[in-house]
Amino acid sequence: MIKEQKTEVAIIVVVDENNGIGKDGDLLCHLPNDLKHFKKLTTGHTIIMGRKTYESLPNGALPNRINIVITSDNANNYPGCIVVRSIDEAFLLIKDKEKVFIIGGGKIYDSTLHLTNKLYLTRIHHIFEEADTFFPKIDFNNWELIVEEKHKADEKNQFDYSFITFIKKE
């Protein structure tokens, strides 16, 4: 399906050195610069997430974005969101979009990695031993590195980190 459309489908994710992405339904740490980076990239676009990711958002649906939540939950208690029951249903909704971001969580990343053509990875240069959710293993032979920005820890960002962008090789 993705090959027929011109939509850029990107995963955006923060991972530690072991590909950890979360603990107890939350991020591993708070990096204000990553949150700014996320907002800059995703504002004005469509974002797709699972139920647990939606529930982790402090104020519900993210503003200035089309929010799609994939869930089997019948409560439909997702104000400001389009609720779908499957990844296929979500992808039917995005076929006319220019750019779409998959924002998590672990099961959604695992189920959509093969459908994406861009990867925005924030690599935290630290290992969080308590991580309980992980990003799937990536075969980097299938991806081309196009941007890497390294940043040092500072008074607001506790760990060294890098913004890394890959595109899928044809």
Describe what this molecule looks like in 3D.
It is a single chain. By secondary structure, the chain is α/β, with parallel strands linked by helices. It has helices at 32-42, 51-56, 87-94, 106-112, and strands at 8-15, 20-22, 46-50, 66-70, 81-84, 99-104, 118-124, 133-134, 143-151, 161-168. The strands form two sheets. Strands 5-4-3-6-1-7-10-9 form an eight-stranded mixed β-sheet, sandwiched between helices. Strands 2-8 form a two-stranded antiparallel ribbon. It starts with 7 loop residues before the first strand and ends with a strand. The mean pLDDT is 94.
A few lines on this structure:
This protein has four helices and ten strands. The chain has helices at 32-42, 51-56, 87-94, 106-112; strands at residues 8-15, 20-22, 46-50, 66-70, 81-84, 99-104, 118-124, 133-134, 143-151, 161-168.
Radius of gyration: 15 Å
Shape: globular
Strand line-up in the sheet with most strands? 5-4-3-6-1-7-10-9
Point out poorly predicted stretches: none
List keywords for this structure.
170 residues; alpha/beta; Dihydrofolate Reductase, subunit A; 8-stranded mixed beta sheet; two-stranded antiparallel sheet; 34% strand; globular
